[in-house]
Amino acid sequence: MLRIAIIIGSTRPGRNGEAVAKWVYEIAQRRGDAKFELVDIKDFNLPLLDEPMSPMMGQYTHQHTKDWSAKIASFDAYVFVTPEYNHATSGALKNAIDFLYHEWVNKAAGFVGYGGAGGVRAVEHLRLVMAEVQVATVRNQVALSLFTDFENFSIFKPAPQQEQSVNAMLDQVIAWGGALKSLRELSAVY
Ligand SMILES: Cc1cc2nc3c(=O)[nH]c(=O)nc-3n(C[C@H](O)[C@H](O)[C@H](O)COP(=O)(O)O)c2cc1C
User: Fold this and answer.
1) Which end of the chain is more exposed for a tag (fewer CB within 10 A), N or C?
2) For residue range 91-123, what is the model confidence (pLDDT) as tens digits?
């Protein structure tokens, strides 16, 4: 079965991202057409990129990089749960992406953004980053507003229709993730 990571993209104490990612995970768990896992970049204690070689070389010197590499390599697709910080994704998530290369290649991804404007600018930014690590990003995305999906900008109370948006995004991530898994298997043979 396809393995999909739901990645928590913020590390800030008191972050809203954790509640959002857990809600996405609960919706995903009710499906049955893929295996989902919550991945918290905070657990990997990644410093600012400290590997001497380019990640394209895959020669990692630090244990934190090896642990992060093994975790990310084990998935076929990703759902990035991203905050919007200054019209981009978080520095923590960008840094975590930068640590690796081959682990991401020929996989699929979907996005759940949140912020004052649904995190849409953060997601647009992430799509450009994903293109460079050869991740295929799906069109359907979830845009959660601090004004209508949270109370006092901090208590997560998603509007009822947002569950449907999560499933629409997951439908595409699973379809594309499966197609790319076949492609990776073929290119391993030829
Ligand atoms: C440094 C910083 C910059 C932010 N910049 C934006 C922004 O450009 N646009 C926006 O809509 N919200 C912005 N926000 C609001 C965040 O999207 C919101 O606080 C969100 O909950 C942050 O995610 P987190 O709680 O998981 O860290 C910013 C918040 C922070 C802390």
Assistant:
1) C
2) 999 999 999 999 999 999 999 999 999 999 999
Cα(181) to centroid(ligand 1), Å: 34
- Pseudo-torsion of CA 93, 119, 140, 125, nearest 10°? -50
187 pLDDT band, cuts 50/70/90, is confident
**Ligand 1 atom nearest residue 88's Cα:** 8
The beta strand positions in 35-98, using DSSP E, are 35-40, 77-83
Pocket residues: Cβ below 6 A from ligand 1: 10, 12, 15-17, 83-87, 114-117, 146
- Specify whether the CB–CB gap between 49 and 95 falls below 8 A: yes
Ligand 1 closest atom vs CA 11: 27
User: What is the maximum span of the chain, computed from C-alpha positions, in angstroms?
Assistant: 55
Per residue in 153-172, pLDDT (tens digit) is 999 999 999 999 999 999 99
Do 130 and 110 form a contact (C-beta atoms < 8 A)? no
